[in-house]
Amino acid sequence: MHLVNFWRHSRAIGAALAIVLGFTAGGSTKVDAQNFTEFPIPTLGSAPIGITAGPDGALWFTDELGKIIRRITTAGSITEFPVPTANIQLWGITVGGDGALWFTERPNKIGRITTAGTLTEFPILADSDPIDIAAGPDGALWFTEVHGNKIGRITTAGTITEFFLPTAGSEPFGITSGPDGALWFTESGSGGNKIGRITTTGSITEFPVPTPNSGPRGITVGPDGALWFTEINNVSNKIGRITTTGAITEFPIPTANSDPWGITPGPDGALWFTENFSNKIGRVSTPASTSALLAAVLPSSRSVQVGNQATAFAVILNNGPTAANGCGIAPVTSVPANFSFQTTDPNTNTLTGTPNTRVSIPAGGFQTFLMTFAANAPYPPTNVQIGYDCTGIDAVASIVGVNTLLLTFDANPVPDLIAVGLTPSNDGFAHGQSGTGLFAVASSNIGVSAQVTARVRPSNPTMPLLATICQSNPNTGQCLVTPAPTITTTINQNQNTTWSAFLQATGPIAPDPANFRAFFEFVDANGIVRGSTSTAVTTQ
Q: Domains of the chain: which residue ranges?
């Protein structure tokens, strides 16, 4: 395996441990002004409600009243796909592991539509009222049945299983895939007022929300590794946070009677939510992680053809005083792929144990894993959030470029540059006390030959950082050409190259690896990243 050999020969385990040991949690507090554009829907009387990013690079959304699934490109071109069943309401929508879009039809069906527009419907019990739907780590789709008082599971072949909730009248509403490999959902009814968790084998746990009659509704995974949910009832008017260990914290919204519904993580490390009654959009920053676990992924980017596997190595470090049990990995972002993980020997990178089996990690120790995404459909470049979790310990906070994986699936063969970076300090930082930091990169193209442009991109455009790069002699490290901001070259299949990046700070940069990073990227002629690695940057 090229990836295993490259990992071994590039000292990547050491680099990954340097990344996690150098981690400092923190959230961005800067919010840039947003520009809004509205696109009118062709059909009158529409009521768009659920929306998701499709595997084809477009957005797909449901229509509560129009009984139509719609696709909108980022340029605003809309295509409509009528659903054949009359007298239905469409609601939630998500991407399945098969590369199709899956959606709920009230009162009693689950729908599936391919990116080409082929639509299939699967009936469930009458008046079950499916609302929200999410892709599970087991490759199936999981949905809430608000009137059926059940959680449903449907395979991509259409086989449906239903699980009754222990609490009568719980009215499950929102659902999301959690960082612990389970599904988390809200129980919005007066008989519920709980946050639920269901494993892929159907084991259900419920956690009461401290505020009575809070009406929990939307739910999502935050970048801090916790689950965040909205509490819509005026008696509550809060945003809730629950860790994977079940600890709940509530945050009152400043505007009374705001009626928060939807919630989602933003690119700034905060959570953003809708306020239905106050006509506002809310933002709540996430607290610093207190988890005893840290994690890293190498390489941080994979680009493969559909039908192939994108693999990457991950490491989970247990900083706690006792052994951590039940440790494993699960994708949080919905990806059109079959996912699996397996432990590896960190000295040889050979597979150990059995696939998808959670393990124990001793106090102060670490465990390495191989993650595999078997690509089922095209997928635009996406920073996939991955959950790292052990039983009874809060999940790992997500940091782009450290423990996420930039995935791209293409219909045609593509370049795939495995890149790993190291700094002289080997602590995950490019230090620049004198104003200049050094970042060395080794890469191997295990995809097709292609012309690519190498560049350095700061994670934060306001970071006071200038960068030049050069291709280097792998034996001496000396530049082969004069350093420049970008270098365009052809890298052949199975060709190994080495690079140096010179990072010049023009102002102070705090040691905050969650927010101040330099990404070394290989970009193809279409602007798609085909290889990436990163380092934290500081002037301290």
A: 1-26+290-411, 47-177+197-204, 209-287, 413-540
